[in-house]
Amino acid sequence: MSENPTEGVSTLYGDPKKAILKLSLPMMFAMFVNSLYALVDGIWVGGLGDLSIAAVGFINPLYLIVIGFSNGLGAGATSVISRYIGAKDKKQVDNSGIHVLLLIAILSILFTFLLTLFLEPILRYMGVDNRIMNISLSYGRILFLGSIFIVFTSTAYGILRAEGNVKKATYGLLIGSVLNMFLDPIFIYPMKMGVFGAGLASILSLAFVSILLVYWFKKETYIDFSLKNFSFQFSLIKKILFVGIPAGIEMLIVAFLNLFLNSILLIVGDIQGVAVYNAGWRVVMVALVIPMAIATSTIAVVGANYGAKKFENIEMIYNYSIKLGLLMVALIVVFILIFAPQISYLFAYLPGLVSIRNLISEFLRIICLFFLFLPLGMSASAVFQGVGKGLSSLLITVIRLLIFEIILTYVLTIICGLGQYGVWYGIVLGNCFGSIFGYFYVLRFIKKLNKEEIK
Asked: How far apart are CA 386 and CA 302, in angstroms?
């Protein structure tokens, strides 16, 4: 805890372009390692067979809900705290941080109760059959028993980003990911725990990082979490949740879309279609770290400038984040197009999985094209979250996923009869049209904001 502006806070007060670059690069590296863990985890689980891959795939939508609302709460924390930092209101900075911790406790209790007690009926409603039910329950129950660690770490990173403290957020992500990658193969194979071991490794890693984050909050942050600074304000809860709930619903929509796609794939491709999609999507998640890191940094930088009433900087911040994102994802697309067969081998290295291997390779070469439009949509959502307009950010996600992607996927897969390929092309085209909508929508908002400033 520091009374004077830290290096991170000083970064937020400085040049917005340099701030985005300085905050984004270490975050990209940390998120890349974290996504690499998910990739490695998929490789280890892949050695257990396609039933285990599919079982983990059915738990993923539920995990996305937990991580989504946790990240949403973190986005709310970033938005509110960074705005008070921009306004140089230290008292409300500290008070906001304690209100976020209160919300973490409530959300953790809620998820632990719901997803451990009602996991089996939820999975049956999702269409999970007896072939993989026990495997899914084994993985899901241990994972959701540790909801407190999932929620706390995800939200804590949002608090650190709010004060520009990306170093600590980076260290936390790196330590958790490396520890997870170390424990995964030990628990899965030598200790013969299977997918239960994969879930246990995740929770133990997050528990260790949680202890580390608590230490940093006590000693090394700009925000002072002492209860002497706490004064309950319902208005603060509303400000945090006004960004956090829509951001969480955005991930709920992603989870719903994942469930929808799994269901469509079961119809047209049986278990194999689900296995191909979920294995290939782990590669997508690695590439997603670039626009995600830039967008996450944009929330804090926009929030600080909005709090300081420097409205003229917001359009420049948005355009810069798009250019930076497009430059980097273009390199990723070229890499995947060239090395898709080699990447697919990582998930289907057993002799009997050649057919899945070829399908994963085709999936990657099609799906990588949707990266090219992500910076437009994700940075647009980040701008709205930074200024506290969570519902506008949610609208972009609804248009992109619930309207464009679902409709196009259904049309291409069921009506046009393209099978699995209809799902893949539906994702690409839906994201393209939705991101273009987000681009023009945020520019309209920025134009209106600048007019109000002139008045």
From this structure: 5
Residue 412 neighbours by CB under 8 Å, 6+ apart:
418, 421, 422, 423, 425, 426
Query: Residue 6 — pLDDT band, cuts 50, 70, 90?
Result: low
455 burial via Cβ count (<10 Å: 0-12, 13-18, 19+): exposed
**What distance, in Å, lies between the first and last C-alpha atoms of the chain?**
40
For residue 131, what pLDDT band results from cuts at 50, 70 and 90? Answer: confident
For 388, left (φ over 0), alpha (ψ -120 to 50), or beta? Answer: left
What is the spatial distance between Cα 49 and Cα 58, in angstroms, rounded to a whole number?
15
Q: pTM of the entire structure?
A: 0.79
Reported as a single tens digit per residue, the pLDDT across 351-390 is: 556 667 788 888 888 888 888 888 999 999 999 999 999 9
CA-CA-CA-CA torsion sign (366, 41, 267, 257): negative
